[in-house]
Amino acid sequence: MLASAGNVSVLAIESSCDETSASICLDGKILSNITATQKVHEQYGGVVPELASRAHMQNIVPVVDRALKQADFHLNNINAIAFTYAPGLIGSLLVGAQFAKSLALALEKPLIAVHHMQAHVLANLIEDPRPAFPFLCLTVSGGHTQIVLCESPYTMQVIGETIDDAAGEAFDKSAKMLGLPYPGGPLVDKYAQSGNPGRFHFPEPQIPGLNFSFSGVKTAILYFLQNAGKSYVYKEEFLASEEEKKAFIEQNLADICASIQHRIVTILLNKLKKAARETGIRDICLAGGVSANSGLRAAFLALGQKEGWNTCIPRFEYCTDNAAMIAITGYYKYLKNDFAELDVDISARTALI
Ligand code: KG4
Ligand code: ZN
């Protein structure tokens, strides 16, 4: 398909962590979004950076090729190349950045450097229902937990974020303590569905303002399991043997998962409610991989109805790490002629905009 004059077509690449993804976007419409997920990390219980870089190197060419084919697009018809420059694992970012730069040079097309967290927020602009500006976005992933006030595709501000673990980490680390395989977030969700969320009461942290903390909950879960459910704080007299602990988990897995999920979700939504009330903003969105959590989605929609919010949650494939969100952000940057030099650097940590 030929991009006619006036059309804007963007080829986008995302490689910040352990997903290699490519997407084609034409005039803000996503034509393809191909993601190769790296299974190699499961056996290690977390992402191994060097293995991630190698897998990106293997995947990137076939993934871009598939994205072009699915969109029925030829490279010659691409107007710009967008890629994730930050934040992420350095070795992973390098693969996507180097590929994008080489392509931009060879095709003599502009290069667009995209911030991964800005892209998670703008995933809400991919398809209807879209939020109206200004909106708030709760971005919850394995590496980040932020409340972002988004005034336009170009102006956004982090108004709250985690001071320790991210929400996804809280799910994954809880799952690990329960002996579940990595990444355990989806499994906690699965077992929680048949459990009683009110059975165990993990403490809610008292953090001022709009910031989050999950380390206290994590410690409470650790002691709770070490004490086979007899205490949420360290008590030597309750210390259980490994067998007692295992048996306790086995007999109560659904209720434990439901109670952990309930606490993580209430921490997230209480701060989101506070942010909405303080700013007076009523268009509220979710983003990031943890927004797949069924408990969070249900509680978010229920809260939105109660508070009179206009709620949006992107389709799941646009919530987890994906290149479609890089493409839509690239499209908006293209409209503003916001292009990067070919020697632009990558960064493991860079503040949002
Ligand atoms: O956004 P994402 O795909 O990658 C990062 O940028 O981190 O998020 C992955 C995180 C992992 O921590 C994973 O356990 C969590 O999202 N996650 C879930 C669910 N699905 C994915 N956590 C809880 N419930 C789920 N259903
Ligand atoms: Zn992400």
Considering the protein shown, what is the CATH homologous superfamily of the largest domain?
ATPase, nucleotide binding domain
In the CATH hierarchy, what is the class of the largest domain? Alpha Beta
Percent helix: 40-55%
The topology string of helices and strands comes to: EEEHEHEHEEEHHHHEHEHH
If classified by CATH, what would the architecture of the largest domain be? 2-Layer Sandwich
What ions, cofactors and ligands are bound?
Answer: 5'-O-[(R)-(carboxyoxy)(hydroxy)phosphoryl]adenosine, zinc ion
Number of helices: 10
Low-confidence region ranges: 1-5
Number of strands: 10
Binned strand content: 15-25%
Q: How many separate domains?
A: 2
Assign an overall shape. Answer: globular
Average pLDDT level: 94
Major beta sheet, strand line-up: 3-2-1-4-5
First-last Cα distance: 34 Å
The rounded Rg comes to 21 Å
Largest sheet composition: 5 strands, mixed
Structural class estimated from helices and strands: alpha/beta
The CATH topology assignment of the largest domain is: Nucleotidyltransferase, domain 5
Question: What would a concise description of this structure say?
Answer:
This protein is an alpha/beta fold. It is 42% helix and 18% strand.
How would you describe what is shown here?
The chain is α/β, with parallel strands linked by helices and 353 residues long. The protein has 2 domains: 9-127 and 318-335, Nucleotidyltransferase, domain 5 (2-Layer Sandwich), CATH 3.30.420.40; 135-313, ATPase, nucleotide binding domain (Nucleotidyltransferase, domain 5, 2-Layer Sandwich), CATH 3.30.420. It is built from 10 helices and 10 strands. It has helices at 49-71, 90-107, 116-122, 167-177, 185-192, 215-226, 242-279, 294-307, 316-319, 324-335, and strands spanning 9-14, 19-26, 29-37, 80-86, 111-115, 135-140, 145-152, 155-161, 283-287, 310-312. The strands form 2 sheets. It has a 5-stranded mixed sheet with strand order 3-2-1-4-5, sandwiched between helices. Helix 5 crosses helix 7 (242-279). The longest helix is centred in the last third of the chain and has 38 residues, at 242-279. The radius of gyration is 21 Å and the shape is globular. The model is unreliable at 1-5 (pLDDT under 50). Bound molecules: 5'-O-[(R)-(carboxyoxy)(hydroxy)phosphoryl]adenosine and zinc ion (ZN). 5'-O-[(R)-(carboxyoxy)(hydroxy)phosphoryl]adenosine (KG4) binds at residues 17, 141-143, 168, 171-172, 183, 185-186, 188-189, 288-290, 292-293, 320-321.
